[in-house]
Automatic annotation (TrEMBL):
Pfam families xrefs: DDE_Tnp_IS66_C
Domain of life: Bacteria
Transposase IS66 C-terminal domain location: 4-41
Protein name listed in UniProt: Transposase domain-containing protein
């Protein structure tokens, strides 16, 4: 599964290390009903 997420990062020109670092930092307090927001292609829209 992680390989797929890293592939999605690369597909969307996202640095996988930056994405993973941020997600691991916030996931513990992130609401489960909004977990899709942490997917790479959605996460990047919140970073700009």
């Amino acid at each position: 599964m992680l390989y797929s997420l890293i592939g999605t990062c690369k597909l969307h020109n996202i640095n996988p290390s930056l994405w993973l670092k941020d997600v691991l930092t916030v996931i513990n307090d992130h609401p489960i009903n909004r977990i899709k927001e942490l997917l790479p292609h959605i996460w990047i829209t919140k970073q700009k």
